[in-house]
Amino acid sequence: MKLYIGNKTYSSWSMRPWVLMRALAIDFDEVWVPFDGFTPDAEFKKTMAAIHPLATVPVLEAEGVIIADSLAIIEYLAEAYPEKQVWPQNAQDRNIARQLTAIMHSGFQAIRGHCPMNIGAELPDVGARLMKDHPALKAELDLLEAILKPQFKDQDFLFGEFSAVDAFYAPVMSRIKTYNLTVSAEMASYQKRVLSHPAVADWCKKALAENIFLDFEEPYRQNINGNDG
Q1: Same structural domain, 52 and 101
Q2: Domain count, the chain
């Protein structure tokens, strides 16, 4: 089984299945496809287009099937490895976890657009400017608090053990740290637990080891005094 991923520093979508599979001890071979751009003539795009027409990461190759979407990969893993508890065991918890995962999969466009994932960077000044200039960013952080707060119980992760839903929210927890975004004490505590999980910490350690700077992934550094994130 192969998992195709992009740069660990920047690729939030790649992070999700990678950390889940590591956390659940699901064996796979990692295939790293470095970003060099996202135009059709970029080597990254040409490489991934040869694997799947979407030409994106992550992609899972398993049992002769090519799965080119992070949520689809998670559902494949849930069926292929029922003993691994990709989703919570309790049916009600499982339904809520799937809902939260789907919300993250399709939503939070302001956080995604204004606060790109950047493992290891410390950009509090950028974060403060973005919070001031973009009300939609604050609104999405409020939404994040509202949908996750009911799960902040006396447990390490959203449904006890680390599962798919925690893997899906891990990149946002990284963004909160990178940009020093203002969140509640409960969210900050959850953030620290997620980032301290061995699989997530290993991803971050490997991201730092890449030691690659891509200017097209970091527009906020190019326009540090501007109004756009």
Answers
A1: no
A2: 2
Instruction: Summarize pLDDT for 176-225 with one digit per residue, the tens.
Output: 999 999 999 999 999 999 999 999 999 999 999 987 767 666 766 544 33
Q: What is the pTM of this model?
A: 0.93
Question: Strand 65-67's sheet: what is its strand order?
Answer: 29-32, 2-5, 59-62, 65-67
Where are the alpha helices (H) located in 30-117, listed in sequence order? 43-49, 70-80, 91-106, 109-114
Kindly state the tokens that stand for 52.
Answer: 């799947």
What amino acid occupies position 55? A
Residues 6+ apart with CB under 8 A from 227: 129, 133
Tell me whether residue 228 is in a domain.
no
- The amino acid sitting at 96 is I
Q: Note whether 102 and 53 are same-domain residues.
A: no
Tell whether 227 is covered by a domain. Answer: no
